[in-house]
Amino acid sequence: MRTWNQRFFTSTRGRIIEILRQDSCTVDDLARKLQLTDNAIRAHLTTLERDGLVQQNGVRRGSSKPASVYELAPSAEQFFPRAYGTVLHTLITTLAEQMDEEELIALLRLTGERLSHRLGLPSGDVPTRLKATVRILQELGGAAHLEQHEDHYCIQGQQCPLAAAIEAHPAACQLAEAFVSELVGVAVQEQCELDETKPRCRFLIPLTP
User: Fold this and answer.
1) Percentage of the chain with pLDDT > 70?
2) Which of 71, 79, 141, 178 could form a disulfide with 24 if both were Cys (CB 3.0 to 4.6 A apart)?
């Protein structure tokens, strides 16, 4: 079964993204490579610019009028495979072989705390920090949203940024719990859903910590 990314790259916009990842191009360059009209390319570029995937970067002077040069925007890198998941899985496996479970959990929690400080701790009261934490998790690929219940808040994710490691190493959730606790400023309770096909992050935060 093809993934969503694979299907995207068979589309014209996906092919434009792939071309721009290799080199900056003008409308004429893209039209020639894709054998499309200039107007068709401009329409696709307008959509890609609107979605924050492509950006203009200067002009190229030729025999006629200057032509805008397009390049890939940083946010477009999300479409390309990375080695992070494989590296994380292998790293935790190696650490688990070298230390006992208590030491591993302590190291993972320390990593989560340091990561939160590296990204910048939100300021404000708990509700404000919760909203900022959800935004950070979304930026990391967690697809999270905030829910408020009678006696607690819940940060519910539809995906897990650590999914590549979670199945073999559920202790990796300790990293996430420490990370979120530091961001929110109070202790949170990790209750992640460890479905082997699609693990989801879930953190509970008391209304009155």
Assistant:
1) 89
2) 71
